[in-house]
Specification:
The structure holds two protein chains of two kinds. Chain A is of the alpha+beta class. Chain A folds into three domains: 144 residues, no CATH class; 277 residues, no CATH class; 75 residues, no CATH class. In chain A, the strands form five sheets. A six-stranded antiparallel sheet of chain A has the order 9-12-6-2-18-17, with no helix packed on it. A six-stranded antiparallel sheet of chain A has the order 8-3-16-19-20-13, with helices on one face. A three-stranded antiparallel sheet of chain A has the order 1-5-4, with no helix packed on it. In chain A, α1 packs antiparallel against α2. The two termini of chain A are 70 Å apart. The relative contact order of chain A is 0.08. About 1% of the residues of chain A have low confidence. By secondary structure, chain B is an alpha+beta fold. Chain B has two domains: 188 residues, no CATH class; 113 residues, no CATH class. A five-stranded antiparallel sheet of chain B has the order 2-11-10-6-7. In chain B, strands 1-3-5-8 form a four-stranded antiparallel sheet, with no helix packed on it. The longest helix of chain B has 25 residues. Chain B starts with a helix and ends in a 7-residue tail after the last helix. The N terminus of chain B is likely disordered. Classes of the chains: A alpha+beta, B alpha+beta. Chains A and B meet through α5, α6, α7, α8 and α21 of A and α2, α3 and β6 of B.
Chain lengths: 644, 325
């Protein structure tokens, strides 16, 4: 087993390396692995665990991780398993080569964390992990029992890293990037929270309390009024009595004709930066009028990315507010948008038939329903659970609920009355960050509303929740802060979010396209991979040359500490007006100074005598004597010289 | 350490097969390590870490994971710098001198090598050759660094120092930098001594061999400076304490009878056996403080006594051809 100080360094390095990944694992798994880490670390410091116990721990860790991920093996479960094995390896450090290999493998852990999150905190922790691993490698590289001090080691390592910065920077900006991935990301079995492709009334309770950002928006021109900020996501057209789902047959249809702006640069231009969702849905401002080729529109006018959004994604989009779209609805589609499962919500359907008979005008019927909602239903985030007949239960019994309840019941009422309708999910509103100037839309802004197809007009958006509690939908910063401490801290949150947005833009979003743009700004036109490669080669050569020059310069300046102290001492005299001439011997210099400044003569001559002895005469002088003179020279200060 | 030495030995043998790296011709001292004679290759740990970094780089490039790229590029740059640092750890080092006290065949030669550390402090350099080491070499800049290499004395005669290898894996253990030095120098190996020590010739007449009593007091010897190889019992401790330097009593006149060590007086023995016996006699005569005269086919040494004479005799025996003419 390696010596205890070395084992300590290895344990610290491995624990630090596992920290960024640990913070991104789900709670129970993270706690389990943290316990495992402490156990393995303690065992590494004391004595190796017996083989039986180790095998047991391996089985336990595998089982625990798999159970924590519901036995679905995906990217997250994979990284958790890797982390657990890495930590368990701590419990069997047989020799120093084992320790070195472990530290080398530990470098994977921060990278696994980066696959989940690339925020500044994770990157900082990851870089810290890298530094800890390098420190451990440096410690393990010493082949003698005698180690340099911590400070010396850190200084040498710091120099190594600083000298590496130019090359790392050149590589980061100019190393040829892949415009398209060679292989896909490992599938993640457990989706992140957020809006999905199904919805049943009441299942968004957690989402409505989640204040993590869903996406950020930067408008290029003036932004539309708040009540038009509907960010359209998946459209749910299939109802099984309890759950609304996206209908794959409807979605597979060609995109409906949407009104386009008169000029190609008309409409509302904005940049959408979506947080990773592991899903393909893009939440675009209604109604989408222009989108990049990575996106496509489905048959229900929702925008989808071609690949699941596993990392932060940024798109340039255009929107054009319209009253209605798709005035023609073929009969099969019409039937699909009227379908209701038999045997559900009898009371609601009876009511819909009655009212439709009384108000044949579609708009009049909608107004009547919304009026009823407004008069007899209330908005509540803590709605009681509903039975088999969700719409009946909500409309006639509980009479309180939030957007899911309202949208679901409303669409049932519409379909029951022979009006084609569907549920649309997405987000509404957003909060402007006064510092960054961008808009942030959070998970709690998730919303469900309805679209009704009206003869001669097309699909028209109807938001039944807005009829009841418009303030709960279009709330802004002022309503949400709630006053008190939270309001006082708001500028700080704003600043933090602004920094995060800048980080996303400048660091996380840097890719092949931006690389080409960067080179164009540097004067390289039509940068194909070859030219990017050449640019990288030149920059790397320059950076390496710079590092090498600095290294060699350091070498040139690296005299013994004694020589450095002596020179520094002479410089202090030179600042007092007594520079030693190059041709002058140290003794002659001391004599000259002594004549002018008699009170300094004795200490100066003593130092000079010792310097001459140690530096010129006594090649075999002990290290202590040198160190002592070095210290004396460093502390020696020429007296202040005043007067004539 | 043992595992490392074993791995280094394997590497050494393997590299020795490459024509490019095969030993240079022996060269005169001083030898300065310039960039043309320093080689750098990754260690096994370096290959492993390189694999990890390559995987990280590919993964990060594929997913355009900028955080991963920052980490990967930074670590790669540091690893490259560590290779430069390993190179600089050897560069500019100068081997000024080497010397070894003779040892008997079968014993250990301690080869003392004296380096000038040059412009930078040296840390964790290991010195070895095919037969011995490693010995640590470390110290501050602009000083003399000494390393002592314990080498087995294989057989009598002049044993070449051979190729010396200076290695370092500092600062991170990811790369190994090494340089070969083949100094044009040999180490003298005395013949092995016959054991048990045979009785000196002529000792069968005890009356003759008895030492004469030394009655001449202090005048019969003078003091000289200590030389390596002097027996501790010869040291004049009081005089040494007065002068601050080790002083050794040297007897001006013999106090025991001379002994004749004759090559031709041992007809029954083979060449090497004769050499071993004569060497043992030389040492034994010296131990008893008796003057000896060594008669060899190549000539006659002595009669004489003292370290110089002993060395001359053993050297003559060491350098005898294996089949005397």
């Amino acid at each position: 087993m390696p010596a205890l100080p070395l084992r300590r360094v290895v344990v610290v390095a491995v624990l630090v390396a596992s920290l960024p990944l640990l913070l991104h694992l789900p709670g129970p798994v993270a706690i389990g692995i943290a316990v495992l880490a402490l156990l393995a670390g303690a065992s590494a410091l004391r004595r190796p665990l017996p083989i039986g116990l180790r095998v047991l721990l391996v089985l336990l860790a595998c089982g625990g991780v798999l159970a924590g991920f519901d036995f679905r093996l995906g990217r997250d479960a994979g990284s958790a398993l890797l982390l657990a094995m890495l930590l368990l390896k701590l419990a069997e450090l047989r020799d120093i080569d084992d320790a070195r290999r472990l530290v080398g493998f530990a470098l994977f852990a921060p990278f696994a964390a980066f696959l989940q999150d690339q925020g500044p905190l994770t990157l900082a922790l990851g870089l810290l992990a890298g530094a800890a691993a390098l420190f451990a490698l440096a410690r393990l590289a010493h082949t003698t029992a005698e180690m340099p001090t911590l400070a010396t080691e850190c200084r040498q390592l710091g120099a190594l890293v600083l000298l590496g910065l130019p090359l790392a920077a050149a590589a980061f900006w100019l190393f040829p990037r892949l415009p398209t991935p060679l292989w896909g990301l490992p599938e993640n079995a457990v989706a992140r929270t957020g809006i999905g492709d199904s919805m049943s009334p009441g299942d968004w309770i957690d989402l409505m309390a989640d204040d993590s950002p869903a996406f950020r928006v930067r408008f290029e021109g003036p932004r539309p009024p708040a009540e038009q900020l509907y960010w359209r996501g998946p459209v749910l057209s299939h109802f099984d009595g309890r759950t609304w789902r996206r209908d794959p047959r409807l979605a597979a249809l060609p995109p409906p004709p949407l009104p386009l702006p008169a000029a190609p640069d008309g409409g509302i231009a904005y940049t959408l930066t979506l947080e990773p969702t592991d899903r393909r849905f893009v939440f675009a401002l209604e109604s989408p009028a222009g989108w990049p080729p990575q996106l496509q529109m489905d048959g229900e006018a929702s925008l989808l990315a071609r690949e699941p959004l596993r990392g932060l994604a940024q798109f340039q989009l255009r929107a054009l507010p319209v009253q209605a779209f798709q005035p023609q609805l073929p009969e099969p589609l019409r039937r699909a948008y009227l379908a209701l499962p038999p045997g559900y919500n009898p009371r609601t359907l009876a009511l819909a038939e009655d009212w439709r008979a009384e108000t044949p005008d579609a708009r009049g019927y909608i107004t009547r329903v919304l009026g009823w909602f407004h008069a007899e239903h209330s908005y509540s985030i803590s709605a009681p659970p509903l039975g088999r007949h969700t719409a009946d239960g909500f409309l006639f019994d509980t009479r309180e609920g939030f957007c899911e309840h309202f949208a679901s019941a409303f669409v049932v009422l519409m379909r029951g009355a022979g009006l084609p309708a569907r549920v649309v999910t997405g987000y509404v509103g957003g909060v402007r960050n006064p510092i960054g100037g961008h808009w942030i839309v959070r998970q709690m802004d998730a919303h469900a509303w309805a679209e009704v197809w009206l003869e001669g007009e097309g699909w028209v958006r109807v938001d039944p929740t807005a009829a009841v509690a418009p303030e709960r939908i279009f709330d802004t910063l002022e309503d949400r802060g709630g006053g008190g401490i939270a309001a006082g801290l708001q500028p700080m949150f704003d600043l933090g979010d602004t920094l995060r947005e800048a980080w996303n833009h400048f660091v996380v979003q840097y890719d092949a396209l931006r690389q080409v743009q960067l080179l164009e700004r540097l004067g390289v036109r039509n940068a194909d991979p070859l030219r990017v490669g050449i640019a990288f080669g030149l920059a790397a050569a320059l950076a390496l040359g710079l590092s090498l020059a600095l290294l060699l310069r350091r070498e040139d300046h690296e005299r013994t500490p004694l020589q450095r102290a002596w020179r520094a001492y002479l410089r202090r005299w030179a600042r007092r007006g007594f520079g030693k001439h190059p041709e002058e011997s140290a003794a002659a210099f001391a004599a000259r100074v002594g004549r002018s400044v008699p009170e300094a003569a004795a200490p100066l001559e003593a130092l000079v005598a010792r310097w001459n002895d140690l530096h010129y005469a006594d090649a075999e002088a002990s290290a202590e004597a040198r160190a002592e003179l070095t210290r004396a020279l460093r502390q020696a200060r020429p007296p202040a010289i005043g007067g004539p | 350490m043992a595992a490392q030495a074993g791995a280094a030995g394997r590497l050494d043998r393997w590299l020795g097969r490459l024509p490019l790296l095969r030993g240079r011709r022996p060269e005169a001292l001083p030898v300065r390590l310039d960039h043309r004679r320093i080689y750098v290759l990754p260690t096994r740990l370096g290959l492993l870490v390189g694999g990890v970094l390559l995987a990280m780089l590919l993964g990060a490039l594929n997913y355009n994971n900028n955080a991963g790229l920052v980490l990967a590029f930074l670590l790669i740059a540091v690893a490259l710098n560590s290779a430069v640092m390993a190179h600089l750890g050897l560069a500019d080092l100068r081997l000024d001198a080497l010397q070894a006290e003779p040892a008997h065949a079968g014993g250990l030669l301690s080869l003392r090598l004296s380096f000038d550390s040059g412009r930078r402090a040296r840390e964790g350099l290991w010195l070895q050759n095919e037969n011995g080491g490693p010995a640590l070499l470390a110290g501050p800049a602009a000083t003399r660094l000494d390393a002592v290499l314990a080498l087995p004395a294989v057989r009598r005669g002049r044993q070449p120092v051979g190729r010396l290898r200076l290695t370092t894996t500092q600062p991170l253990g990811l790369v190994r930098a090494w340089a070969w030095i083949a100094p044009d120098a040999g180490m003298l190996v005395y013949p092995a001594l016959e054991t048990p020590t045979p009785a000196l010739p002529g000792a069968s007449t005890p009356g003759q061999g008895r030492p004469r009593p030394d009655r001449s007091g202090e005048d019969t010897h003078h003091l000289r400076d200590y030389r390596l190889g002097d027996a501790p019992r010869q040291i004049a401790w009081k005089a040494s304490a007065r002068s601050g330097q080790l002083r050794v009593r040297e007897y001006e006149a013999g106090v025991a009878q001379d002994v004749q060590l004759d090559w031709n007086g041992l007809p029954g023995l083979g060449t090497e056996a004769r050499i071993r016996r004569l060497a043992a006699w030389v040492v034994e005569a010296e131990r008893q403080g008796r003057r000896s005269r060594l008669v060899l086919p190549s000539g006659v040494l002595g009669p004489g006594r003292g370290a110089t004479h002993r060395h001359a005799c053993l050297q003559a025996l060491a350098l005898l051809p294996t089949t005397p003419a």
